[in-house]
Amino acid sequence: MVSAVQEHNEVHSVSGNRALTGAVIPITRLMSFYVRLLSLTLLGGSLLWGQSSDRFTQAVLPFLAQNCYACHGSDDAVGKLNIARLDSPQSLQEHRAQWAAMAEKMASGEMPPAGFPQPPAEQRTAVVEWVTAELARLDDLVAPNPGRVTASRLNRAEYDNTVRDLLGVRFRPADDFPQDDSGYGFDNIGDALSLSPVLMEKYLSAAEAVSRTAIFGVKELQPALTRFDPAFMNFDESQDAPFTYDETGLSLPSALHVSHRFLADGDYDFTGLIRGFRPPGSEPIPMAFWIDGEMVEAVDVEIPSTGELSGQIAMIRHHVTAGDHWLAVSFLKLYHGLPHEYSGPEPSKLPPPPPADPDELFRPPPGATPEEITEL
Ligand code: HEC
User: Fold this and answer.
1) In the chain, which residues fall in CATH 2.60.120?
2) Considering only CA atoms, which of 50, 46, 81 is closest in space to residue 63?
3) Ligand 1: distance of its center to the CA of 48 in Å?
4) Pocket test for ligand 1, best of 66, 71, 75, 135 (most atoms within 8 A of CB)
5) DSSP for 35-60?
6) Residue 347 CB: number of other CB atoms within 10 A?
7) Residue 227: exposed, middle, or buried by beta-carbon count in 10 A (0-12, 13-18, 19+)?
8) Residue 70 in contact with ligand 1 by CB distance below 6 A
9) C-alpha–C-alpha distance, residues 260 and 257, integer Å
10) Got the DSSP string for 261-282?
11) Is the CB of 30 under 6 A from ligand 1?
């Protein structure tokens, strides 16, 4: 900068304007502006843009000195902008914002202000283009900043899978966590997966359960009883048995179908409670247990001489894996093995039962009121 100013003063004196030379120091800043403008005119020829790589010192700096320093030449200059300080190519890096503002003001023609002598248009354009290109080049050198990536937590599925893969624990601890939020339709976006205090608490208790399970194995479950009753009950009281019918019993009203979620792999007891009546002299009837559509076992139920089956049970024990399973209980061949008179298929080969013992018949105690009899 200093050299530029000196050069400019020299040129100025070459102009031979002695009266102005003597006045440079004491006169107002505005006057000195005019003096420098004069010298610029003289310099015009040497301001042609060459191929020189050092355009900054050869062209930009003298241009600013000529056109801007008059008003922006010190720290207390107008707009608090001291352009004289921006005297090295490095200043483009260090004071990027000021250079960008300068290029903008020059490009828009705002600076130098209207009413003051203006530089030739091609000089102004050339300086603006150089500064703009140089700022762009410096920007390109800076390592790109793709922005901040949110530290992402695992969503529930990821949590379960990670715990399973790392520790072999399969009880899906995240089932207990609050629902994950989703963003743009995805539930694995870090920005959408927040960490609430509730979730933090769940994490802590899950960590405890997971580590306990990983070390000591699955916690032993207490045996629990689940009871299912048929939603619909229908006793066939007809005296004639159909000859063709669903022999599995699965589609008959006597079957029970349920879906049950088993919490763990294990051996389970299945008990069928029987209600109803089967003609005395019938063959034993097989009660069948089905899991997921496959018959796993059938248990013969004996027919007592009274024919009353209510209160009897049939029981099996079977291994079942954890998860949802379809269970069914039915009587196999319901209408087979009945006494002859029912004319069903494959009638019973058992001898007819002895006539009922009159002592076994129900007799109310003598003198009982109707209410007491109902209660018996
Ligand atoms: C005749 C005096 C004068 C000349 C010559 C002059 N300026 Fe200015 N400049 C001003 C004044 C006055 C302001 C304050 C304007 C305002 O605040 O509205 C200003 C403001 C600016 C600003 C905005 C500063 C800020 O941060 O607010 C920039 C940039 C600027 N000038 C660049 C230049 C450049 C580049 C040159 C040379 C090409 C130049 N000026 C020449 C008088 C001048």
Assistant:
1) 256-370
2) 46
3) 25
4) 71
5) HHHHHHHHHGGGGS--S-S-HIIIII
6) 18
7) exposed
8) yes
9) 10
10) EESSSEEEEEEEEP-SB--TTP
11) no
For 135-174, how does the pLDDT look when each residue is reduced to its tens digit (9 = 90+)? Answer: 999 888 887 778 888 888 999 999 999 999 999 888 889 9
Determine if the pTM surpasses 0.70. Answer: no
Residue pointed to by tokens 């107002």: 28
For residue 255, how far is the Cα from the chain centroid? Answer: 44
For 115, other C-beta atoms within 10 Å of its C-beta total 6
pLDDT in tens, 306-365: 889 998 999 999 999 988 999 999 999 999 999 988 888 999 998 887 766 666 666 777
- CB-based contacts of 361: which residues, under 8 Å, 6+ apart? none
Distances, alpha carbon 121 to alpha carbons 103, 112, 127, 132, in Å:
14, 12, 10, 16
Place of tokens 């009266």: 19
Q: By C-alpha distance, which of 264, 262, 260, 178 is closest to 213?
A: 264
What's the 1 CA to ligand 1 centre distance in angstroms?
A: 18
DSSP per-residue letters across 68-115: THHHHSSTTSGGG--GGG--STTHHHHTHHHHHHHHHHHHTT-SSPTT
CA distance readout (Å), 308 to 275, 277, 286, 331, 373? 8, 5, 16, 16, 20
Mutation to probe ligand 1, out of 30, 105, 110, 131 (largest number of atoms < 8 A from CB): 105
Residue 101 CA to ligand 1 centre (angstroms) = 10
Q: Which amino acid is at 199?
A: L
Q: What CATH number does the domain located at 256-370 have?
A: 2.60.120
| Three-state DSSP state, 216 | helix
- The residue whose C-alpha atom lies closest to atom 7 belonging to ligand 1 is 112
Q: Ligand 1: does its nearest atom lie under 6 Å from the Cβ of 106?
A: yes
